Amino acid sequence: MKLTSNSGKINILEILFFLLLNILYQYPLVLVFAYFFNKRIFFFTDFLYTNSSLTFPLLMTLVLILIFIFAWKLGYLKNTLKDWDLKRIFWLMGIVFFTLTINYLVTVLVLKTQIISSVTSDTGMSDILGQLPILCQKYILGIIVPLSEELLFRSYIFGSITNKKVAFIISSVLFALVHTGSSWYILPYLILSFIITWVYSKRNNFIESAIVLSSVNLLGGPAIKLLDTFFKLLPY
Questions:
Q1: Cα angle 44-29-49, degrees, rounded to a multiple of 5
Q2: Residue 236 lies in a domain
Q3: Per-10-residue mean pLDDT for the chain, 236 residues long?
Q4: Residue 84 forms part of a structural domain
């Protein structure tokens, strides 16, 4: 089922897939850490929480596999592994360095102007992930989250909207909104989202944008500290 307008065609069925899979993607967090969200406690919640270092990454991995299967069936994974060469890899490394630098500069701007107290809105999420072993945290932030979110917010959105300019805006804004809500925290997320969406739009390859997002998740904090040892722009 498709809707047609001046902005192009929108595949309603694929948008529904995106919405359902996005809800499913959020569910392991709520299910395993129900106590933190004051959600309904199931009879197996204690078991999931007590064994969260195993159950949480396992559930997230199962959801990622499901997202992969639907993306493959819908044809979003075509040419994903084709045409990789050294030039492309070095280009991607440059984009990662550029994104980390922009992330540092945005952090400086936000903190100096005091629009918000920090550039991280999901401190609750940080507290939850902080309970997990380091290796588990790296696996979730470096692999599961980037692959899942880039498939959902890039591949599914671009695959369901034929007008790529509209898809670009919707993908970028939606990604930022889901992570921050309607608050000032959306500003740094929007800048990051626009860069990552641009990377995806170059070749419609979610692996490239996932690598950039993974780099920000894993290296964002250390990169800010490292860059500030040279430039000393942070107000603390």
A1: 40
A2: no
A3: 60 87 89 72 77 93 96 89 91 96 90 67 66 92 96 93 92 91 78 95 94 95 94 86
A4: yes
